[in-house]
Amino acid sequence: MGRIWRKSRASANNGSGCVEWAVDTVGVLVRDSKHRAGPRLSFPRTAWAAFLARLD
Fold first, then answer.
1. Tell me: the pLDDT tens digits for 3-47?
2. Model confidence band, residue 50 (pLDDT cutoffs 50, 70, 90)
3. Could you tell me which residues are beta bridge partners of residue 28?
4. 12, 41, 46, 51: which could join 17 in a potential S-S bond, CB 3.0 to 4.6 Å?
5. Is 33:11 a contact under the CB 8 Å cutoff?
6. C-alpha distances in angstroms, 39 versus 17, 29, 31, 32, 35?
7. 1 inside domain
């Protein structure tokens, strides 16, 4: 089964500036929706949770 990618709620509605994220066995992956096959950032789940906790 493939990853389920979710679009950030803060992304532009016109599709020009979207950030997507997915949970993986290594943690959380983040990618640019315009370059889905391109590079991805990987964060441990604890680091991702700390990042989200600081958002308002």
1. 899 987 766 666 567 889 999 988 999 999 888 888 999 999 999
2. very high
3. 23, 43
4. 12
5. yes
6. 16, 10, 7, 8, 8
7. no
Beta-bridge mates of residue 1: none
Lateral strand order in the sheet of 27-32 = 6-7, 19-24, 27-32, 41-43
Q: Which domain does 12 fall in, by range?
A: 6-54
Looking up tokens 């599709």 gives 15
Which residue has tokens 């990042």?
Answer: 51
Tell me the whole-structure pTM to 2 decimals: 0.75
User: CA nearest 28: which of 9, 49, 7?
Assistant: 49
Measured between alpha carbons, how far is 50 from 24 in angstroms, rounded to an integer?
17
